Amino acid sequence: MENDRAIAYSEVYTILSLMNQKYVDMIPDKIKLVIEREMDINYKPKINPDIPLINQKLNKRTYTILAMLNFNYWCETQEQKKRLIKQYKKNDVINEKIKAKNFSSSKIFDNVDTKIDSEGKSESIAVYNEPIFTKIKKWFRRNFQIITCFIIE
Questions:
Q1: Contact, 26 vs 73, CB < 8 A?
Q2: For residue 115, what are the domain limits?
Q3: Domain contains 148
């Protein structure tokens, strides 16, 4: 997780270096210092400025950090902030629907096989394709990730 965060800061640093200086100047120096201090100096992200960021394989935390920068420093009007908040809420609703679909109680017993042994007794055995710990871990990652939409000019 620590390396994951350092990679995200490295990607944000690279993205900022490719951006118009006007936007970089809007970020307080303290924030820029945190980004520089926390980034992984050995990781060199490959960011193509001709491809939208959403189409590049970036760390999920990178999008979160950029969304925070966008909301706090690059939104010039309250109207822009309201639109972002509205989009964040919309994304939350979509995530909740996905969670409800993926974790509905009716699906708990979908993978149950019934076997009859030699004595005629039946046993129900749940068949799982992946360990429950992995499913829980994925659930936490999905639920605590902020889905972001942002516009970088």
A1: yes
A2: 2-143
A3: no
- d(CA 32, CA 13) in angstroms, rounded, equals 8
What DSSP line would sit under 16-76, residue for residue?
Answer: HHHS-HHHHHHS-HHHHHHHHHHS-TT------TTS-GGGS---HHHHHHHHHHIIIII--
The better pLDDT of the pair 124, 58 is held by: 58
| Closest among 14, 122, 8, 22 to 68, alpha carbons compared | 8
Residue 82 identity: K
* Residue 41 CB coordination number (10 Å): 9
Indicate yes or no: pTM above 0.70.
no
Q: Is 150 contained in some domain?
A: no
Is pLDDT at 149 greater than 60 in this prediction?
Answer: no
| Residue-averaged pLDDT of the chain | 79
